[in-house]
Known about the structure:
By secondary structure, this protein is mainly beta. Helices cover 7% and strands 37% of the residues.
Amino acid sequence: xxxxxxxxxxxxxxxxxxxxxxxxxxxxxxxxxxxxxxxxxxxxxxxxxxxxxxxxxxxxxxxxxxxxxxxxxxxxxxxxxxxxxxxxxxxxxxxxxxxxxxxxxxxxxxxxxxxxxxxxxxxxxxxxxxxxxxxxxxxxxxxxxxxxxxxxxxxxxxxxxxxxxxxxxx
Length: 170
């Protein structure tokens, strides 16, 4: 279990992605994920250790999973809602996100909402990073009686993928 801590109060602790599907290649870039909270919302941070990430899509809601992409799937309140959010972002900062019951049943999110996440990407020689904030007010649009509690346990998954990259990986 991963304890979500208050932003800028504790040293960052990362979850590292270690499991990849066998795609017939050995491409398994190291990915670190961290999530913290503040009075504004949840702050997600990824370190992706790959050089020259493939990033063809530039607009929110494009199929960014085809690019070099990181994904966070999260139930913000599994007791009040059986739906989860999927946040998928590529190295251009383009995000695909919606509120899902499952793969086929989902509620769309507006471009204005995605713009409020303040997505920041930084690409360096052998690493790229992604930072964004999910405001509590955004969550309340979909989970009406959502109330953040400091010691909440969030069910979530973190992924790295690239369907159309030089070395397909999941």
